[in-house]
Amino acid sequence: MTLDPIFTERCIEALLFAAAEPLSVQDLAKRLPDGADIKQGVADLRLTWAGRGIELVEVAGRWRFQTAADLAFLMTEEREEPRRLSKAAQETLAIVAYHQPVTRAEIEAVRGVQASRGTLDVLLELGLIRMRGRRRTPGRPVTFGTTDAFLEHYGLANLGDLPGVAEMKAAGLLDLNLPPGFSVPDPLAMRDDENEDPLDEGETPEFAQDFLGELEGGDKA
């Protein structure tokens, strides 16, 4: 039996309003009765709230209510100043985002300087990047990729929404002069690396200690 569309929309609205974090279609399906057309309900709810002070937006494949972008200035005094990433961290994060899965050696090759253990530690601690697996090459280096938290932080629905270099600079996501080796591949073409193995079950090394090693001198840029 098909659930009443208006009732479905109201149920989704109630769940998203009360949720502490964004919810996926699958999360909503666990709560709603059988017969609910959740995708249509989300689409209807998005139209209902379009143009209002609160809007329904998709981040990292999940849905949440948030203040309309043009009204963000009203919240300025109520929000803490976000922690600004260092130039080295911005460069490293940009390289991981556009070249994932990527190893530390590949990050260094693009940046042209040695990657400090501290820079990668910061990005890992903030949850913006994660250790994906190990490359099937000598030494089996660890590969890095971005996380859902990265998409949520920058308001991206998926990696296909990654901006071009000029847009990144304008938005303050990329404050650097790109090195010659940096290119911007098509984010939609990103897929799992066939030459990558997942981390071993139970393998939970500390950030740099096991994977990155002790690097002397740190970042030189």
UniProtKB/TrEMBL annotation:
The signal sequence is none
The source's domain of life comes to: Bacteria
Q: InterPro entries, from UniProt? A: ScpB_csome_segregation (IPR005234), WH-like_DNA-bd_sf (IPR036388), WH_DNA-bd_sf (IPR036390)
Compositional bias per record (Acidic residues), positions renumbered to this chain = 193-204
Q: Where is this region: Disordered?
A: 184-221
Q: Which UniProt keywords apply?
A: Cell cycle, Cell division, Chromosome partition, Cytoplasm
Which Gene Ontology BP annotations are present?
Answer: cell division; chromosome separation
- Please name the NCBIfam families in this protein's record: SMC-Scp complex subunit ScpB
Protein's UniProt name: SMC-Scp complex subunit ScpB
Gene that this sequence comes from: scpB
